[in-house]
Amino acid sequence: MTKKANPKLIGAFVLGAVALAALGVVIFGSGRFFAERHAYVLFFPGSVKGLTVGAPVTLEGVTIGAVTDVKVVFDRETLKFYTPVYVEVFPDRIKDTGQYRTEYLEELETDEVMKLLIDRGLRGQLELQSLLTGQLQVAVSMHPGSKVHYVSIEKDVPEIPTIPTTIQQLAKAFENLDIQGMAEDLRKTLAAVEQVATSPELAEAVTSLNKTLKDA
After folding, report:
1. 54: left (phi over 0), alpha (psi -120 to 50) or beta
2. What's the pLDDT score for residue 207?
3. Is the pLDDT at 101 greater than 70, yes or no?
4. Which letter does DSSP use for residue 20 in this model?
5. 97 CA to centre of own chain
6. Cα dihedral 185→188→194→195 (10° resolution)
7. For residue 215, what are the CA distances in angstroms to 49, 201, 209, 212?
8. Which of 19, 32, 83, 161 is the most exposed place for a label (fewest CB within 10 A)?
């Protein structure tokens, strides 16, 4: 006697096939599965709260890669904590015009070209990806004249130097503000205004002014 097919088993098989097909379209259709990629690490001063795996890496506003990992490491020599941010960059997202191409540059590897760019001011910064969610992204751009600072605790991955971001500079500025003192000064100012506004002298002056205007 022939067994009746299990509808649940067939349904699960169909769903699995559809999921695999969709995954194939995403991976192979994007072309990123076989794309050349290069790994780098960045060390940002301060907190990296809001930066997650998968966040974009941008150059002049164009996505050229993504964050692959964010860790916390402890350096026993300096007794400091660091948060290395690992990224992957897709070189094929960056094209040159060919106008300034030389045989020397053509012979260089991508990491060597990156070293040249760093020498000329390439730095990494944290930027707001979304103001509503507070999510961050990594932005690399040219900052000629900025100092090069390497943490140099990651030996296996090339490091891109970083500079403080506008967000971090604002946070530091707020930390240095005497909020309590400013609040106390404001309280005293409001108290003085209230004292003047409720003084008998002001009431008499207003009454006298009204009388003068009526008699005029």
Report:
1. left
2. 76
3. no
4. H
5. 29
6. -140
7. 69, 21, 10, 5
8. 19
Whether the CB-CB separation of 42 and 159 falls below 8 Å is answered with: yes
Rounded alpha-carbon distances, angstroms, from residue 211 to 40, 73, 198, 216: 80, 78, 20, 9
pLDDT tens-digit readout, 175-190? 566 667 777 778 888 8
Alpha carbons within 13 angstroms on the beta-carbon side of residue 11 total 3
Cβ–Cβ under 8 Å, residues 84 and 75: no
Look at 15-29, 133-147, 176-190 and tell me which has the smallest mean pLDDT.
15-29
> What is the side-by-side strand order in the sheet with 84-89?
38-43, 84-89, 62-70, 56-59, 136-142, 122-128
Instruction: For residue 30, give Cα distances in angstroms to 16, 27, 53.
Output: 21, 6, 19
In this model, does residue 24 exceed pLDDT 70? Answer: no
Taking residues 29-44, what's their average pLDDT?
73
56-59 and 62-70: which strand pairing? antiparallel
pTM of the model: 0.61
pLDDT of residue 28: 46
